[in-house]
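Newbie here. two chains, one complex. Structure please?
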Amino acid sequence: MNDGILRYNLVERVMHWIAAITYCYVLLTGLAFYSPHLYWIATLLGGAPTSRYWHPWVALVFTAVLFWMLRQWLGDMRITPQDRAWGDAVGHYIRNEDENLPPIDRFNIGQKYFFWVMLYSGIVLVLTGGVLWFPELIPWSLRSLRYAAVLLHVSAALISIGAFIIHVYMGTAVVRGGFTSAIRGEVSPAWARTHHRLWYHRVTGR
Amino acid sequence: MSTGALRIQRASGHAGPIPGEDTQRRMQVAKLIDTTTCIGCKACEVACLEWNDLTFRDTVFENSYQTMPETAWNYWNLIKFNEHQRDDGSMMFLMRKDQCMHCADPGCLAACPAENAIVQYQNGIVDFQQEYCIGCQYCVTGCPFNIPKFNSQTKKVFKCTLCSDRVGQGLEPACIKACPTGCLHFGTKDDMKELAETRAQQLREHSGYANAGVYDPAGVGGTGVIYVLHDITNPEAYGGLPSNPRVPWTVRIWKGPLKWLGNLAMIGGLIGVTMHYLRYGPKHVNGSGEEGGRP
């Protein structure tokens, strides 16, 4: 580990875990309001009125972190021609034939899509969530906004959940070393060479 | 505002059947409001406050006889005044008692995620049980009549109960009791419907209101509050009574197909990643002895 390469600095890691915890909270409380079969989750989290009270406030923290991430990682998250070449070969990635993949920079196209999906669904969620938070501030003549908001809020949430499942699965089970990098910030040179060769060359100069 | 004397047939946020559902046959009740004989005295507004122990709110003057623009969390019954110009240029006052319509197919109940916060009794009364309310205000979005109102202090939603506590004891609602002109009636839905139709016919045949009719909108399965209107073709003139109220289609999709699609997608996603792991397992990094590398 002494020759570890810094992949995420401390602030990035802290922000990631604030996002993770706040997302899990709004996910769980949101699921409780989503289905009667999952309403018990709200009971576990201190009761449904409490869950309803904190859901939007915690969501605001999550949204703030999302925009911090946008500012921090915008340069890294743009999709490049190398990413597209990698994306065309994603079947190899899925089948763990990583030696057949073209080299890429700090993030692969899947991570980039995850970022953009979370950002855009987060924006939809916070805008529609505002309508759901204060429906009585929407005049009766504009009530179609409320009608649109309930549908869009759930749709965006479901899309983000899909992305979230894959993100957690990849980060913990599949890409060994990924979870450690999100905690301690460092990856091994071999890891960097295997998964992000262009980034490895860029940061090490090797 | 629950009452033990009434049996519940539908409850919000409830998975599975309702205990005791359909074990008893019970008459549907209805309130009949004859707008043609309402004089706008607001006795019903006062009676509602008195019986339900609500304090009087500040009134809002908007160049009309109306007490305030719309109902409020502690003001469930409001006479809407509208000056209406007829085709011949003459003026008429349209007065409509506005309150919860007690829909047979209530949008508030469909939208509510909190178990038992909104119930429908077997007599058709739709009631909010505030002890279960979580203050999400989805009912505000689900209601096509703009009735549920939020108390931002207590984070609970309130509306007319059709005096379910009185009805459960065999009494008529307080507003009915107070009406001096007899424009308010209470009884079984069938009786009220018949009375309303008779009155509408009378208005058509003897009073020159050719379009008189009964407002019992089918879009929400009929309502537990029905109106006799001078002009059934223009309910909007009566303080914005919707001509074809429906539970918003987005609420239907949200609570129907989207729920199943979403559940399938989430469960499918979890099964999908599990299957991927079983088939392909973790990724190995070339170069042994390093973090994340092959052991």
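Moderator note: Chain A touches chain B through 54 residues (CB under 8 Å). The longest strand of chain A covers residues 5-6. Thread marked as resolved.
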